[in-house]
Amino acid sequence: MNPVEWLKHVLDRHAERRLRCGPRMTFGRESFVAYHSIQLRDGWGPTLDIGERSYVNAGIVFETKTGSVTIGNASFVGGATIICRDSVFIGDNVEIAWGVTIMDHNSHSVTYYGEREKDTLMAYLIPRGGNSAKDWSNVHHAPIVIRDKAWIGFGAIVLKGVTIGEGAVVGAGSVVTKDVPDWTVVGGNPAQVLYSISPEQR
After folding, report:
1. CA-to-CA separations, 182 to 130, 169, 199, in angstroms, rounded
2. Nearest-5° angle of CA 167, CA 168, CA 172?
3. In total, how many domains does the chain have?
4. Which of 15, 94, 103, 160 could crosslink 142 through cysteines, CB 3.0-4.6 Å?
């Protein structure tokens, strides 16, 4: 075994050990998943389901044990970050470019005293052996749905509760805070409808 083969063997074994300790996962045939980029912040339990012939080279962060990320068939997620508390659903034939962030929660409460201050304290305690269990009761969250054939341009941000419609296009660098209709192009911060995609372009 030459040095390159040996290194690949060691990395594959390491990845297998991480998979056994990671989320419950199902992969369709011919799908590629960079599972070394998966983080579990609250222990084992979340689910990752990926269909057939999809390429997923994204950082996926599961904030809770009940989080669920679903990616359909023949979808491409390249260099994006998915941060999931509850549910992120990505359909079939979706293209998501590098630098995209998809996040289904607000991360912290707007109220500092008695709420967000606990998160600040927790960030101090975790590296010192403190409790890593976050209190999510005061943090707003809602599922994200990205329907079939959508395209999200590089550097875009998709926030909680958003549904991006079938065949919709999100311009690069946009911040999506509300639903995007089917077959429309949106852009800006916050993202606004720029125009509808004609039947001839679909």
Report:
1. 46, 9, 12
2. 130
3. 2
4. 160
